[in-house]
Amino acid sequence: MSAADRLLEAWYRGHPALTLLRPLEWLYRRVVQSKRTRFLAGEGDIYRAPVPVLVVGNITVGGTGKTPLILFLIEHCRARGLKVGVVSRGYGATPSSLPWRVRADQSAAQAGDEPLLIVQRTGVPLMIDPDRSRAVRALLAEESVDLILCDDGLQHYRLARDLELVLIDAARGLGNGRCLPAGPLREPVERLAEVDAVLFNGAEADSAEGYAFRLQPTALVNVASGERVGLEHFPPGQAVHAVAGIGNPQRFFNTLEALNWQPVPHPFADHAQYDATLLSFEPSLPLLMTEKDAVKCRAFAAADWWYLAVDAAPTPAFVDWLDGELARLIPGS
């Protein structure tokens, strides 16, 4: 287990040594609360786009299902006749310049795995830049859009926003409820009271705390050929090598078990880079990965490598709320 994995386990399961980090947590909280206070006061260089900006983010470190929800939002807004643009930090990307327009034929190393996945799946105009406000300006200079979705920009206070959606893993929750480095929170838990909507990934039903949404497996897709087949392609009890380089690999492994398959888990760090040797496992079994991993493996994928396609499925109550907000922000939509 890596040091990062041990720290993550401590945050969510508890460890007395974390008390030693509380002075650093106090300093961290002071910094993030100061940034938030200055933003609310309108101080500093804050860019307000001429179109509505919807931020999808989290207050915890680690994966919460932001990319599937972004994909849902793109398609839902398009169904309402809206043209959508996306901006992202582009974590792990190595473009030759910034801001960088992501195209479907680029490599994940150049564009970043999540931005490339979004563009390949939807064709949406997408710009990456750690400075989200600069990314929005660059996108609007190239495209006429009705709405900007900001991927993981909750704490990027140089960009004004019209809606904030926060995602939380329902199984893990907020861990010990403490901020970095003593806990997994990027901002104090009180921040949740200020956002527009909270969504719990994996929750069974809506609650007073927020809306529920689930990641619904829809198909198996061959990494090398792009062939799409039904989930019945693997019979119950099928053993597979399961690869997940996401914020919470265990969620992927649990999904495969819920589909009555027998995954041999191979967790990797979020945004991990792969090659054929690294993914050569024994015994010989089909290899099943996430779509985020697949965009980095197509060039060297074997014939029996697949990814599990999943779609975010929020509750009708969330969809109704979202439609009301879109009508308010974009009259006539």
What does this structure look like?
The chain has 333 residues and is of the alpha/beta class. It folds into two domains: 1-211 and 312-327, Rossmann fold (3-Layer(aba) Sandwich), CATH 3.40.50.300; 215-311. It has nine helices and 13 strands. It has helices at 3-13, 22-40, 66-79, 108-111, 113-122, 132-142, 249-258, 291-294, 316-329; strands at 53-57, 84-88, 100-101, 126-128, 147-151, 163-169, 197-201, 211-222, 228-229, 239-244, 262-267, 287-290, 305-314. Strands 1, 2, 3, 4, 5, 6, 7, 8, 9, 10, 11, 12 and 13 form a 13-stranded mixed β-sheet that branches. Strand 12 (287-290), helix 8 and strand 13 (305-314) form a beta-alpha-beta unit. Helix 3 runs parallel beside helix 5. It is globular, with a radius of gyration of 20 Å. The N and C termini lie far apart (50 Å). Belongs to the LpxK family. It holds the Pfam family LpxK.
